[in-house]
Write a structure and sequence with these properties.
327 residues, alpha/beta, Rossmann fold, 2 domains, seven-stranded mixed β-sheet, 15 strands, 23% strand
Length: 327
Amino acid sequence: MRVARYSRIGEPVDVIEIFEEDTPAPGPGEVSIRMEAAPIHLADLYCMRGKEHFDLPLPAVPGFEGVGRISAIGDGVTEWSMGDRVFPHLACGAWRDEITVLAEGLLPAPEGDAAQLSLLPINPPTSYLILEDFGDLKEGDWVIQNAANSNCGRYLIELAKLRGIKTVNVVRRPELIDELTELGGDVVLVDGDDLAERVKAATQGAVIKLGVDAVNGMATERIASCLQDGSEVLAYGMLTGEPCMISPDTSFLRDIKLIGFYTIRQFAKRKPEEVRKVYDHLARLFEEGKLSAKIAGTYSLDNVKDAVAHAGRRGAEREGKVILTMA
């Protein structure tokens, strides 16, 4: 089988290589999964570059998530059958043809497009848990987010729409306004120093209860400036790599709180059956066509160097996620 692996730190296109390895047989309590598709996340690129907090023991196989079908079953496994479609465990090293993992904790995957479904384990739960766990949001409430054209941003628009929650969506390019409005965004604005004034005008002075920031730097302050006093800004991304900036006036006079959001941390607060319910719910939305991701390109695993080069582009040069396919 083919495995994408890197043995040194550097630019992803330079360090990632394809190797041929034997397919391991599953041991007791294990299954093998024939992978169908796996996305390339910025976190994968950070790991290959050795970014702080993203370093992995070398050699390493990237791939935080994906989707595939069970191809072999070890002794003692009774809950799965050959051909069952599943999501492997997070951070399993999904960039390979086949992976052998513990059967316990695997999640069932629905039928449908493999490229779309390969993104379900991380980005959709992130958006879902933001809306579920913060802001005490109810129908008719407002949320503001930047990086609204990211996959998490797009999922948040769709999920908020289903709950009757209104969204202000901040982008950095005006050509995205019509696209996100069509997706369901109630207000779409280009970021800028006068953001708070334009948000107030566009929402007719609506109270905005929650801010979501993936850009950082002064973009965090601009999101905070749009919120009602006592609200929260969730920082869940690091697009600029800059510190999240919130002024003293915003922090201690207006009581705006900056909170780091991490999906795995939110799941850790839930019982396993509660986590399963979240994934079941999101899988149904995918099946019903109510959730979808924007795909920038799909590449065969053999073309992993081209794929990571594409995934490393920003803005209009990469509209959506890059997906590796193993079929």
